[in-house]
Amino acid sequence: MMRALTARQLAFGWLHFALALPSIYLLLGMPLVLREQGWSGTQIGLLQLAGLPAVLKLVMAVPVERCRLGGGGYRAWAGLLGLLLGLALLGLAYDFPLAQPPRFYAWVLLISWLATWADVPVNALAIRCLPVEERLRAGGIRSAALFLAAVVGGGLLLVVHERSGEAVPFVLMALLLAVGGLLLRWISVPAEAGRQRYVSAAEAVQPVSHKGAMGFVRQPAAGLWVALLMLLFPFVGAGWVYLKPLLLDLGMPVEQVAWWVGVGGGIAGALASLAGQRLARSVGLGRALPLLAALATLALATLGGVGYMAAGHALWLVGAGLLACAMGALSGVMFGLMMHFARSGYQALDYGLQASLFTLSRLAVPVLAGILLDRLGYPAMFTALALGMAAVTVMALLGGSILQGAISKSGEVR
Q1: Cβ neighbours of 308 (radius 10 Å)
Q2: Per the UniProt record, which residue ranges are transmembrane (predicted)?
């Protein structure tokens, strides 16, 4: 049984990896190339708005939840949207208009929209297929998969771009999606009968009247969770967006940035993702959340302090390593909590709602940070992000025990 669960977790991990890779390459890897091409900080920040479709995940979740698409349900939706995403990647492979920003924005927006939509049925399928006690672990695996996507999209594919040309990375990403499509056919969905292990105690006691999106906010501690969901990640995420352009501006070669930050930082984040969920299971969310938020504050403050010191590359890379670990650990725990707060029968809807709220703040902060960068420079930008993260740490310290108490009945964490 454990072997089957592990195989299922790894299959979903691959699907998360293949779906996240295009957006990571375009939104986190390409800023390095765009900076090399002369794009400004504001232009790079505006590129992040191509991730706006993720704000509409709640809207995208409605047809996924209500239309079974030929009787196939979540799996059929994931397969169709994955196919369309692969075709869009092949289209951009042979039309790469870096000199025409509006056209490039349009391609990135299309790819981001399809990847975002496909993410909804894949995560709903994962919530339906994995037992309650596996959800926090699933969050760690998903986060690790996203950081491995960062290794490939923010590092290795940049090296491929430099050495083999602009089309090859997109063809490779389309092939990885094709492998994911094969895995979709292999994943088995548990029958409705005997699915007690797949429904948490919190879900089991949901009154019948708790239907639709409003039922989500009636869950215990849902309001606190929404606040943390929107604030725990965007400050560290914004810092990561501008880390590669920063090192390029400091004179580090493109390929070296790709290896040190893209590959090295991605591996550190993946390992931290797995460690973060273990920390939450061992010491409890009430202690884990403020500890991880404090680590994120330390990482951003380190980058700000190094900037004011005008230090060399080595200290910048230390700050980058701390930031990668903070991002990985935080995101692993957050993805597990998102699965917990998705009610039985409303997996796609509740996941879409949470993802929309998460993305809304995640996209706004990099734009503001880019404007701050152009006006005041890197040290001031990282210092401002550190101050914002410090405020979130206080919120996590005050509310972590409340959140832990609300979800402890499900048996997912201590």
Answers
A1: 13
A2: 44-64, 76-94, 106-127, 139-161, 167-187, 221-242, 257-276, 288-310, 316-339, 351-372, 378-399
* Cα separation, 285 vs 264, whole angstroms: 28
What is the spatial distance between Cα 109 and Cα 134, in angstroms, rounded to a whole number? 33
Dist. CA 136–CA 101, nearest whole Å: 40
371 by Cβ neighbours in 10 Å (0-12 / 13-18 / 19+) ranks as middle
Residue pair 118/82 in contact (Cβ under 8 Å)? The answer is yes
**Token representation of residue 155:** 């590092």
> Is the separation of the CB atoms in 74 and 184 below 8 Å?
no
Handedness of CA 212, 214, 219, 222 (dihedral sign): positive
- Enclosing H/E stretch for 376: helix 347-376
3-class SS letters over 135-176? HHHHHHHHHHHHHHHHHHHHHHHHHHHHHHCCCHHHHHHHHH
Contacts of 60 (CB under 8 A, 6+ apart): 53, 116, 117, 120, 352
> Which CATH superfamily includes the segment(s) 2-189+213-410?
MFS general substrate transporter like domains (1.20.1250.20)
Give the torsion through C-alpha atoms of 245, 55, 407, 9, to 10 deg. Answer: -70
How many CB atoms neighbour CB 377 within 10 A? 15
Those residues with Cβ within 8 angstroms of residue 212's Cβ, 6 or more apart along the chain or in another chain = 346, 349
Q: Is the pTM of the predicted complex or chain greater than 0.90?
A: no
Structure tokens at 45: 């920040």
Q: Determine the Cα–Cα distance for residues 9 and 337; give it in Å rounded to an integer.
A: 16
131, 189, 341, 215 alpha-carbon torsion, rounded to 10°: -130
DSSP 3-state of 1: coil
Q: Helix, strand, coil shares of the chain as percentages rounded to 5?
A: 85, 0, 15
Mean pLDDT by groups of 10 residues along the chain of 414 residues: 74 90 84 72 72 78 80 84 94 78 83 91 84 74 82 81 84 93 78 50 43 69 85 90 80 77 81 84 80 93 84 76 90 80 77 82 83 88 94 88 68 46
